[in-house]
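Input structure tokens:
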């Protein structure tokens, strides 16, 4: 059932926590990564890849994106994942977060416009850091401008 209301984050990562996440972690599984170069779900991971992050595309309809092997589901990834970056509607987030917990990710990052407080609570209860309603590329660019990252 599709929910027709927006949530706002009840609790969210601070700027300091975002800085720690972007400087400490490197392997990012991008759930909902797009093959379409016009979409943010393509532009953001491409930017992150160009800035030294290891990107793992997760898209059940793609074999490869940006020359990288795409996985049908988080559970199919065989290497450790630091951050699960979510480009999917809020109603799909809880399922993705449960899988992020199972694969022992360290962070769940819901991109700009995506908030699911119950899923964030679940992630925190299982020891994951949570960022909601923030664009990873924009946050990275801020840190580059501040001279924290290159």
């Amino acid at each position: 059932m599709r929910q027709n209301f927006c949530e706002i984050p009840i609790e969210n990562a601070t700027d300091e926590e975002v800085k720690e996440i972007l400087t400490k972690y490197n392997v990012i599984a991008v759930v909902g990564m797009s093959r379409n170069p016009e979409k943010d779900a393509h532009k953001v991971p491409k930017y992150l890849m160009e800035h030294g992050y290891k990107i793992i595309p997760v898209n059940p309809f793609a074999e490869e994106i940006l020359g990288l092997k795409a996985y049908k589901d988080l559970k199919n990834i065989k290497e450790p994942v630091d951050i699960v970056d979510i480009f999917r509607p809020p109603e799909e987030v809880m399922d993705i977060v449960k899988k992020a917990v199972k694969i022992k990710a360290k962070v769940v990052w819901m991109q700009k416009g995506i908030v699911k407080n119950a899923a964030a609570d679940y992630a925190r209860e299982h020891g994951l850091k949570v960022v909601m309603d923030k664009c990873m590329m924009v946050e990275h660019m801020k840190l580059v401008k501040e001279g924290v990252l290159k």
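Residues 15-145 form a domain with the Rossmann fold fold (CATH 3.40.50.720). The chain has a mean pLDDT of 95.
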